[in-house]
Amino acid sequence: MPAFARNILPKMGVFSVTGAAPCWPREQEDSEMTTPRDVYRDAANSQAGRDAAAAARDAAATARSVKDDVGEFAANVSDKAGEHLGRAQDMAVDAYDEVYHYARRNPLAAIGIALGVGFLFGALTTARR
Q: Carries keyword Membrane (predicted)?
């Protein structure tokens, strides 16, 4: 056995390192095996476990509060957007009505404006060579 093993292993409670005999700490020799459930229960009942649970409850409450605030904000934005959409639709209808009545009163001017706008649009969208 290496020298470090002879010095360190007895301090750790290991009583056999031959390979044939089992190696385990002496204090666990007669004790019952700890199950994951026992470990979880002990961790949950510890002060750190109680603190973590309290922090989780606080985080959940904060998340619910933020969710409510965001929901209220989204509802307000939706209402405002609906109001603006209604106003925009009304303005579009009014503009259409004005153009329609102008074209009925001055058909030659309306045709000239339409030709000019078409020419301008064509000149802007045509690829230059």
A: yes
pTM over 0.90: no
* Whole-angstrom distance, CA of residue 40 vs CA of residue 125: 71
Sequence-ordered alpha helix ranges (H) in the chain: 3-12, 36-45, 47-105, 107-125
Grade residue 11 by pLDDT with cuts at 50, 70 and 90: low
pLDDT for res 20: 46
Q: What is the dihedral of CA 77, 83, 87, 92, to 10 degrees?
A: 70
Give the closest residue to 29 by CA, choosing from 45, 11, 13: 13
- Return the SS3 of 2: coil
Q: In the predicted model, is pLDDT for residue 25 greater than 70?
A: no
CA 63/CA 50 separation, integer angstroms: 20
Strand partners, 14: 25
Residue 27: count of CB within 10 angstroms of its CB: 8
CB atoms within 10 A of CB 11: 7
- Distance, in Å, from the CA atom of 119 to the CA atom of 129, rounded to the nearest integer, reads 18
